[in-house]
Amino acid sequence: MRFTTRLTQALDARRAADGWRQRLRVARNDTRTLEVDGKSYRHFSSNDYLGLSQHPAVLAGWRHGAPGAGASGHVTGYSHLHAGLETQLAHWLGYECALLFISGFAANQAVVHLLAQKQDSLIADKLAHASLLDAASHTPAALRRFHHNDVASLAQRLAPPCDGATLVMTEGIFSMDGDSAPLAAIAETTRRAGGWLLVDDAHGIGVTGEQGRGSCWQQGVKPELLVVTFGKAFGVSGAALLCDETTADYFLQFSRHLIYSTAMPPAQASALLAALHEVQRGDALRQRLHDNIQRFRAAAAALPWSLMASESAIQPLVVGENSAALRLSQRLAQAGCWVSAIRPPTVPPGTARLRITLTAAHQESDIDALLKALHDAAGE
Predict the structure, then answer these.
(1) What are phi and psi for residue 40, nearest 5 degrees?
(2) Is the CB of residue 227 less than 8 Å from the CB of residue 205?
(3) Which of 178, 277, 312, 316 is the most exposed place for a label (fewest CB within 10 A)?
(4) Four-way CATH pick for 25-50+282-379: 3.30.470.20, 3.50.50.60, 2.160.10.10, 3.90.1150.10
(5) Per residue in 63-94, pLDDT tens?
(6) Does this model's pTM top 0.90?
(7) Which residues are catalytic?
(8) CB 91 within 8 A of CB 137
(9) Could you tell me which of 290, 243, 15, 6 has the C-alpha nearest to residue 107?
């Protein structure tokens, strides 16, 4: 089969399944408001949970650093801003070291790609992020998956002897279901089996735990490997791996993702330092987010679609078929509310959904407008 034929067939199948994805050319995106094609919408598809992307201190931080690092961190791209951010992150989260990556996807890929060898065992939650599962599939290690948030299933996967090392992978808060992992039980089960635990806390850091320290801190867990990302509650982008000194040294010596990538711009590190300060003192923002979540859930429980059991900023409303989810998303857009329809392969077939995300930037009037639009659509 020629490449052109293969690509055309795949694209035709995607269209036929109502799974076609499109990028938006956004004119304005300030967490609460989205402007597309000259029309303004109430925005319910942003991961900017605390609204920090528009914070004056974060914007000022961008202006205090250079727009480009100019080289890998192993050449001349590692500045005092990068070092300061790593030091503050490590101290804040109780680790010896932090290493910066350009994205959460890159961080997860780097960790799994570097550590996993042929005789090792990788065990992942069935709903773990694509970055973890993709990375695992490209290593020589065996990948097994346990039932979502099921510690007994994890124990079964850990029971067979392994000639190499074992790495268990999960998330703090899951990006499509919005539920939290039982990290304390997972950590104990992994420890008893002699394995290491990797937690991707992209959606927990900044919004849960004391000072926003995240899901692991909240549950009293310190995994060997903790990945936190900055494109959600921090309102910027990038990621960090938290680990001990030996592991950090190993990555600095052998991780191709670190050695052969240009370092994140110093301006980004400067903005992240400002964002970290706002996250640490952001209890009022976290309370506002919590209040918005409770307000939404109280009124959404009566809707005919399945509202998943999530106490996080991610509030998935499972519709079912792709076409139905698209129609509901379009109906909400007509009412001035922007909510993205999430479809397979991102979620399992038959569970297409509206992934509603709430933020501290939303006002009560925004939540009420969304609820009215949903109830009107249900009535139709």
Answers:
(1) -100, 140
(2) no
(3) 277
(4) 3.90.1150.10
(5) 888 788 888 888 888 999 999 999 999 999 99
(6) yes
(7) 47, 129, 171, 175, 200, 203, 232
(8) no
(9) 243
